[in-house]
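Table 4 source record.
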Amino acid sequence: MEPARKLDERYTYADYSSWPEDERWELIDGVAYALATPTAAHQSLSMSLSNQLYNFLRGKPCKVFAAPFSVRLNADEGDDTVVEPDILVVCDEKKLADGKGVVGAPDLIIEILSPSTAKHDRLTKFALYQRSGVREYWIVDPDISTVTVNVLLDGIGYISRAYGEQDTAVPVEVLEGCTINLAEVFEDL
């Protein structure tokens, strides 16, 4: 199932910025996609992952953010791509300079699948994040308690590894020394 689209027009960040704040949308190559309301399981996973990343990053230059938080992936070009990943990490403070979100590719993006976005996250966003230079992209599947970790190799393409709920030290490649305990992440599902 694909997320709902907003008409068949092309939009830019300027359009996106003018939409009501109580509506959540993403733009990918000018096409607007509605964001689903997260479930309790989705929020539990998001909080657990965010908490582990926050605790590791405390006092370090990289920062973790949770949705809603806008990421403008091609602000220097057509400025027609704005995503709101579930969780993201930014290590270059210049990418946060406008105070409204991230301008450029975050170092890490984590998307938690829902029935309405699974295909979109696995295909459309996978290709988008890869070509935009997101160094690491995690896809969390709450239905089968797995995480697929995609690491960008030489700026060319992602190398993927799968982990399950029994894994207690999944490395975050872009954050030296950081590991995530998936047993804790999935324990409340």
